[in-house]
């Protein structure tokens, strides 16, 4: 068999999860910063491609096909991503790691992801990347941030659940593959679907919304957004953290840790405990 069965993936993840939890904090943060940057670069590429296409629907599809490059870098280059690490409930339920160890990993990785994504967001504004296409990219960046911070708590929560269900399935399929090509192909479709459907990924939003916040501080970009009819008056740190990241993060935990991690533990590993 040229791939691991679902039961083998579940069993293999126990060792993977233990290694993640036992990683020294300093190394964990550095790997998390890398992952945040990788996901952000996926977002930069997706937006750049989408804005270059006149048809909004075609542009969104092209962007959705490019974004999986972010998770490809996360899984193949080596890094720590909060949303994927929601699968740590598998070794937790198997009693191979402790609850405190899982939470410690989630907190430090989340912080590192935020740093990495935020640095990329700042960099693309400072270097003028968002000024592409006659500031058309700036308009897209700002309008995306506004849309994400304007959702209701419930909508953001549900979209967060749906997103990380697909992300963790993508990670699961990638772990099933035994070669690089298989991992890339396996993760591609679930990630493409979540982006195409407009579901909410906390780490991606650390980039998307931060980029919008940085962009509105540049007069030329703010003026372009205003001229395009984008109202960013309510785009601020509060709407970023409380209006989007909070419900999306909770949703991501439910979608990944419970809907995938707990379910697959119950299906493939629980009987081995009895």
General description of the model:
There is one protein chain. It contains 13 helices and no strands. The longest helix has 32 residues. It is globular, with a radius of gyration of 19 Å. The protein is an all-alpha fold.
**What is the string of helix and strand elements?**
HHHHHHHHHHHHH
Through-space gap between termini: 28 Å
Shape: globular
Determine the mean pLDDT.
96
Total number of helical segments?
A: 13
What is the helix fraction of residues, given as a range? over 70%
* Radius of gyration over all CA atoms, rounded: 19 Å
User: Can you count the beta strands?
Assistant: 0
How much β-strand is present in the residues?
Answer: under 5%
Short description:
By secondary structure, the chain is mostly helical. Helices cover 79% and strands 0% of the residues.
Set down the secondary structure blueprint.
Elements: H1 6-21, H2 25-51, H3 56-66, H4 68-77, H5 89-93, H6 99-126, H7 132-149, H8 153-176, H9 180-197, H10 202-215, H11 219-227, H12 237-268, H13 270-273
Helix pairs in contact: 1-12, 2-3, 2-4, 2-6, 2-10, 3-9, 4-9, 6-10, 7-10, 7-11, 8-9, 8-12, 10-12
